[in-house]
Amino acid sequence: MLDIRHMKTLVALRDAGSLVDAARRLHLTQSALSHQLKDLESRLNTRLFERKSRPIRFTRAGLEVLQLADNVLPMIQRTEQTLKKIEAGHDGRLHMAIECHSCFEWLMPAINQFRDHWPDVEIDLTTSFHFQPLEALRRGDIDLVITSDPADDPVVTHIPLFRYQSVLAIANQHPLTQYDWISPEHLSEETLIHYPVDRRRLDIFERFLEPHGIEPSATRETELTLMMIQLVASGRGVACLPNWALQTYLDAGLISVRPLGEAGVWPVLYAAIRKEQSGTQYLKDFIETAAESSFATLEGIVQPEA
């Protein structure tokens, strides 16, 4: 009477907190999800959750099913991953480069989890300050690139991980704190601190300043995010970074942030791989693990738009 699909549905409802969000996660209409839940309750001859509660409140029966799902579903997932490894073979190589220079903190747990599943896959990780990672990907020198700058390429496919907001970090005493959001013109008299990469790979230039023909008064480069924050906090410039990368410094009261433009700038972070490897199981598993790790770790990110 109770199958895996039912358990996954109830877990999605619990994790999403509403029928609307659960339906979106399961790629169902809200009507289809409601029908599925009613069918399950009919089979079990009991109510599983309160229909009008916010957030969703489960009945005793619903909690019992959820406890079963929490025990059973991870076991099934581990077994499926083991079977995939048996089919695909254990050996492989995953050499990756990161264009998102603030990604180490959330990516490392994903790499550690991946190692547990694929211990014989050789892993190598580098930043891309000093070379062009997508060209290296096309040549086969590396296998995966984390990037927010997708290119229309016959050889490469880009798989979306999440959307994030690029925001401007400013000192707490900076005059720009009086504004709710930053206009491009506000930066014409500012020193802009950024990573030492081509400006075409930086959101602040590509998506905000250059479309309006605006140049900052000066620029300054640093490879370290912490150094960037220290310079900003001491009033020696402003910096554009992902919202989630600044959360720790915001919580500590070191800096202030403002969105870029009234609507904000919302890039998407992608995992880029060669199309010929899109069916490689360990690559698919790593990308799924990276997406799950990001949503478990980062604040302020959202699902990429379909």
List the helices and strands and how they pair.
Blueprint: H1 4-16, H2 19-25, H3 30-44, E1 49-50, E2 57-58, H4 60-88, E3 92-98, H5 104-117, E4 121-127, H6 133-139, E5 144-147, E6 156-163, E7 166-170, E8 191-194, H7 203-209, E9 218-221, H8 225-233, E10 238-242, H9 247-251, E11 256-259, E12 268-274, H10 281-297
Quick structural summary:
The chain is an alpha/beta fold.
Overview of this structure, please?
It is found in: Cytoplasm. Belongs to the LysR transcriptional regulatory family. The structure is a single chain. This protein is an alpha/beta fold. The protein has three domains: 82 residues, Arc Repressor Mutant, subunit A, CATH 1.10.10; 103 residues, D-Maltodextrin-Binding Protein, domain 2; 94 residues, D-Maltodextrin-Binding Protein, domain 2, CATH 3.40.190.10. Helix content is 40%, strand content 19%. The chain has ten helices and twelve strands. The strands form three sheets. It has a five-stranded mixed β-sheet with strand order 4-3-5-12-6, with helices on both faces. Helix 7 links the parallel strand 8 and strand 9. Helix 1 crosses helix 4 and helix 5 packs across helix 10. The longest helix is centred in the N-terminal third of the chain and has 29 residues. The radius of gyration is 23 Å and the shape is globular. The model has no long low-confidence stretch (mean pLDDT 89).
